[in-house]
């Protein structure tokens, strides 16, 4: 079974099973179709946004997608957007610049954009430092101060940072959140790779020594989203040599390198010959979480994303042109 080539990245993950089922039919492998798990993350994400819109309590309010001028994954947006329209939820698309120019809060902290009340702010932009000018920070602050539901709000946004992951891996931290459930702590901790701090001080100095002594064991990670940012191998030594005595090193974490078992497969990519190669895959899960104050309203898995790439590439995902979209085949 071949993986999907990277120029078809615009095809939503929801359609992967349909495409691969068609391929299996062409190969007369009808019995294998049942081994492809269902997947519709757009619907699941829209259900979460819809629930937040419902909790906001105004049928005339809109959902606002925060976007940039040019969106490479616009079709992902549109699939979620169309799911919301099918639920009679009005969707608008605005940039940070539009917000700072034309948005406002009333005395009840209701957010209005072009005179339309906003129930949910859905960030499809704003995950990289260069996305924020001083003006854009002001736009973000305006939305954060509003009573509109933010997806994500700034606190939830920060929990996805690599530094937070590293802090959660420290002894005793999970126990703080699950004081009466040691089994939950054990199960969660079993999913962690080793994570090490570069904070200034003795602990950070030890991490620098650990990484430079055997860089192939580790991945150096900055506080960034998406592929193409991690640092591997000898380049770790080069980077750390330049920052080992500077506070800048605290903006990185060190993680044990995960080495999955390669499998032979064909990656169908634009402009590249079709050939068998050694590949590895990464499975990500879409989660939907909605809370009202401290009350959890929704906490569900909404789908999955499987990315496959050749072992010759240490880093980079689908958007970077290195990996291709794939689908699990259950055995």
Our Rg estimate from Cα atoms comes to: 22 Å
Q: Which stretches are low in confidence, meaning pLDDT under 50 for 5 or more residues running? A: 1-11
Strand-residue proportion = 15-25%
The tally of strands reads 14
Short description:
This protein has 331 residues and is of the alpha+beta class. The chain is built from 11 helices and 14 strands.
Which features characterize this protein?
globular, 331 residues, single chain, disordered N terminus, alpha+beta, 4-stranded antiparallel beta sheet
Structural features, described:
- By secondary structure, this protein is an alpha+beta fold.
- The protein contains eleven helices and 14 strands.
- Helix 2 (41-56) crosses helix 3.
- The two termini are 14 Å apart.
How are the SSEs placed, and which strands pair?
Elements lengths: L15 H11 L14 H16 L5 E5 L7 H12 L5 E4 L1 H7 E3 L5 E3 L2 E8 L10 H12 L3 E3 L2 H6 L2 H7 L4 H5 L4 H8 L5 E3 L4 H12 L4 E5 L8 E2 L1 H10 L8 E5 L6 E4 L9 E17 L2 E16 L13 E3 L5
Parallel strand pairs: 1-2, 1-5, 5-6
Antiparallel strand pairs: 3-4, 4-5, 7-10, 8-9, 8-10, 11-12, 12-13, 13-14
Helix pairs in contact: 2-3, 4-5
């Amino acid at each position: 079974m071949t993986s999907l080539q990277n120029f078809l990245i615009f095809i939503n993950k929801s359609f992967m099973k349909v495409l691969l089922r068609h391929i299996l039919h062409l190969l007369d492998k009808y019995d294998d179709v049942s081994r492809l798990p269902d997947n519709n993350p757009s619907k699941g994400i829209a259900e979460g946004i819809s629930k937040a819109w419902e909790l906001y309590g105004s049928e005339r309010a809109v959902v606002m997608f925060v976007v940039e001028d040019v969106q490479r994954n616009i079709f992902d947006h549109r699939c979620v957007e169309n799911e919301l329209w099918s639920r009679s939820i009005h969707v608008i698309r605005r940039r940070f610049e539009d917000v700072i120019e034309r948005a406002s809060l009333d005395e009840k902290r209701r957010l209005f954009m072009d005179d339309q009340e906003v129930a949910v702010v859905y960030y499809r932009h704003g995950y990289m430092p260069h996305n924020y000018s001083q003006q854009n920070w002001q736009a973000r602050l305006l939305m954060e101060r509003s009573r509109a539901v933010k997806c994500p709000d700034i606190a939830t946004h920060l929990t996805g940072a690599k530094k937070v992951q590293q802090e959660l891996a420290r002894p005793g931290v999970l126990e703080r959140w699950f004081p009466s459930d040691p089994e939950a702590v054990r199960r969660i901790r079993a999913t962690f790779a080793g994570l090490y701090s570069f904070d200034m001080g003795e602990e950070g100095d030890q991490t620098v020594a650990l990484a430079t002594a055997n860089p192939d064991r580790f991945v150096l990670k900055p506080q960034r989203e998406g592929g193409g940012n991690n640092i591997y191998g000898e380049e770790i030594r080069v980077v750390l040599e330049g920052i080992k005595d500077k506070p800048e090193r605290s903006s990185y974490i060190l993680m044990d390198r995960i080495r999955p078992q390669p499998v032979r497969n064909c990656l169908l990519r634009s402009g590249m010959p079709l050939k068998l190669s050694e590949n590895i895959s990464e499975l990500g899960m879409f989660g939907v979480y909605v809370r009202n104050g401290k009350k959890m309203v929704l906490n569900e898995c909404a789908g999955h994303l499987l990315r496959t790439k050749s072992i010759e590439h240490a880093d980079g995902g689908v958007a970077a042109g290195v990996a291709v979209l794939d689908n699990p085949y259950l055995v």
